[in-house]
């Protein structure tokens, strides 16, 4: 007997096989770092790597697919196989993962469909995506000489819906497009989610997600199995060895010794996938957003996760403690010393050029015109910023009151180039008073998409559309005649630094530095306000001086020998005349943050 089978135990080539897996998301790590992270997973003593597949990166524009560079999943799988690692792949349309919109493409919001359901339009779009994706995965299945053991059908669906017709439709699509390896679902390990999110009636393996109390959670899963007379191996598909970070909140840290004890409790009774083994980075604008009550809580750029490897991919104390325990209990496994990257620092890199956003606007974006403002998705934009511009006549001597209706997520209001107000989700809709000093006054509103919700019922809500929704009211009427400038920042090469700069406006700042020995580093953003930073034109992610993170990880793979350019887009008028690179991340202490 050969291959991978699910019986009373997992079996590989006819022999019992305990899955010791770690999550590494290829799309959160520069490709130059893939080998490093995968090697360290193997060195720990583990035998399998797990990854999601993010639909919104592979088809960011409808009908246009990308599997190059950081999205080359086949290269990632081949590196893993060369190191002797098997793979678990989660190609479901939705992934959660604290990722922008849970991995769903933003352009879906402009469709007349119901997400994550047995909706023919939604399933047709999934099918088109799978036509491209799944053949790439099929040839890496174990039975075809590859290393993939299993595929996930949907992700924690029991925490969202109970549409079994939808789950079965996904399974049929996967089968029709060449996936023959065993399937599974993963959900919270309690009755309601397991019942709603699984296909246990169809003999599809059920796995659980949790971060502690393995004995209790596995007992709940076993009781669920017993109801359907299933004698399956127990597996924690996501063992949360840390947690993600949110702006304005303290980072959540988990005691390394307690973490290792909890991991070993899982391994004693079943198989495990560490979530995360290496968290990596939410590059560009790909951070997700949590919800507490009705309040959106955007997550930070770093996805360090307090994981087994740090954001750069280097071993933490959790790695060494876990490897030591594994050696004691499983001496027959393969172990090795982990790889450790070096890092570099540089001080006082001088500011080379600066320009206001408003002055270079026409060189970096092509505006669209409409009587009423359109949201970001209607303009074919998924992430980033969008600038709305119109003119207001002076109708009375004192100030004019305006209100933004349905604007998301963060809006900065400028009158004749002067900053007037900034409003967040819980403030938008409130009064803003404009001192109309001219007969004809330019009104600009810069709106930032701070990250779409990645989990829960709000995922399907209209609130995931970004930009200005119904419009802006002056006095009692909606204002018309708008120009809209999409600012996705996918290409910043046309910034015109000669166009002029003045204080207290959103601006671009350019720093050049020479680099001969390429090493990882961190951009020290502690002297800047809020915005996003780029290295040689590539967006590293967001920064914000509210913390907890005050730096941005810069992998050496984004650097080149010779002159490198850091571009900072800052929205608050808070900047520095020099930039520092540090060899470790910088954090801000935040006390008494709200609980997760």
From TrEMBL:
Alphabetic keyword roster: Glycosidase, Hydrolase
GO terms (BP aspect): carbohydrate metabolic process
Transmembrane segments: none
SUPFAM superfamilies with a match to the protein in the record: (Trans)glycosidases, Galactose-binding domain-like
Residue span, Beta-galactosidase 1-like first all-beta domain: 373-487
Catalytic residues identified in the record: 156 (proton donor), 238 (nucleophile)
Domain spans labelled Beta-galactosidase galactose-binding: 506-564
Domain Glycoside hydrolase 35 catalytic, chain residue ranges per copy: 10-326
This protein's record includes keyword Hydrolase: yes
Recorded GO MF terms: beta-galactosidase activity
Record bears the keyword Zinc: no
Family statement: Belongs to the glycosyl hydrolase 35 family.
Name of the featured protein: Beta-galactosidase
Organism: Streptococcus chenjunshii
């Amino acid at each position: 007997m050969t291959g991978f089978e699910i019986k009373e135990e997992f079996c590989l080539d006819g022999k019992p096989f305990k899955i010791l897996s770690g999550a590494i998301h290829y799309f959160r790590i520069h490709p130059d770092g893939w080998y490093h992270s995968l090697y360290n997973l193997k060195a720990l003593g583990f035998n399998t790597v797990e990854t999601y597949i993010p639909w919104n990166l592979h088809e960011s524009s409808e009908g246009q697919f990308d599997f190059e560079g950081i999205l080359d999943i086949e290269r990632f799988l081949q590196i893993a196989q060369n190191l002797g690692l098997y793979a678990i792949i989660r190609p479901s349309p939705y992934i959660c993962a604290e990722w922008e919109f849970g991995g769903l493409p933003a352009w879906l919001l402009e469709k007349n469909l119901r997400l994550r359901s047995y909706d023919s339009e939604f399933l047709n779009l999934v099918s088109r995506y799978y036509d491209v994706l799944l053949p790439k995965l099929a040839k890496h299945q174990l039975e075809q000489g590859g290393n993939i053991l299993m595929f996930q059908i949907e992700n924690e669906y029991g925490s969202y819906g109970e549409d079994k017709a939808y789950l079965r439709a996904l399974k049929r699509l996967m089968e029709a497009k060449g996936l023959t390896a065993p399937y599974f679902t993963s959900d919270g390990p309690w009755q309601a989610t397991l019942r709603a999110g699984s296909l246990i009636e169809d003999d599809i393996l059920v796995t659980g997600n949790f971060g502690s109390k393995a004995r209790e959670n596995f007992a709940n899963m076993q009781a669920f199995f017993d109801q359907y007379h299933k004698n399956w191996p127990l597996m924690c598909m996501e063992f949360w060895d840390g947690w993600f970070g949110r702006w304005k909140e303290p980072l959540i840290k988990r005691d390394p010794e307690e973490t290792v004890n909890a991991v070993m409790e899982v391994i004693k009774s079943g198989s495990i996938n560490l979530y995360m083994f290496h968290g990596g980075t939410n590059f560009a604008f790909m951070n997700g957003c949590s919800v507490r009550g009705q309040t959106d809580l955007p997550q930070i750029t770093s996805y360090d996760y307090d994981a087994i490897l740090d954001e750069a991919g280097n071993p933490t104390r959790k790695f060494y403690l876990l490897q030591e325990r594994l050696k004691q209990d499983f001496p027959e496994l393969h172990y090795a010393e982990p790889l450790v990257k070096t890092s570099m620092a540089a001080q006082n890199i001088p500011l080379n050029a600066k320009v206001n956003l408003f002055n270079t606007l026409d060189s970096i974006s092509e505006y669209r015109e409409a009587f009423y403002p359109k949201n970001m998705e209607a303009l074919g934009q998924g992430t980033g910023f969008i600038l709305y511009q119109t003119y207001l006549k002076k109708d009375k001597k004192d100030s004019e009151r305006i209100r933004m209706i349905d604007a998301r997520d963060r809006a900065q209001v400028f009158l004749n180039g002067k900053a007037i107000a900034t409003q967040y989700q819980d403030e938008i809709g409130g009064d803003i008073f404009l001192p109309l000093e001219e007969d004809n006054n330019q009104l600009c509103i810069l709106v930032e998409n701070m990250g779409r919700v990645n989990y829960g019922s709000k995922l399907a809500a209209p609130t995931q559309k970004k930009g200005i929704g119904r419009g802006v009211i002056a006095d009692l009427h909606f204002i018309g005649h708008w120009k809209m400038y999409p600012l996705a920042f996918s290409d910043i090469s046309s910034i015109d630094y000669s166009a002029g700069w003045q204080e207290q406006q959103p601006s671009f700042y350019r720093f050049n530095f020479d680099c001969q020995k390429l090493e990882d580093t961190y951009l020290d953003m502690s002297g800047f306000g809020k915005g996003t930073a780029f290295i040689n034109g590539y967006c590293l992610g967001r920064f914000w001086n509210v913390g907890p993170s005050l730096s941005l990880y810069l992998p050496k793979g984004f650097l080149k020998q010779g002159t490198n350019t850091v571009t900072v887009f800052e929205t608050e008028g808070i900047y520095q005349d020099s930039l520092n690179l540090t060899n470790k991340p910088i954090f801000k202490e935040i006390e008494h943050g709200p609980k997760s």
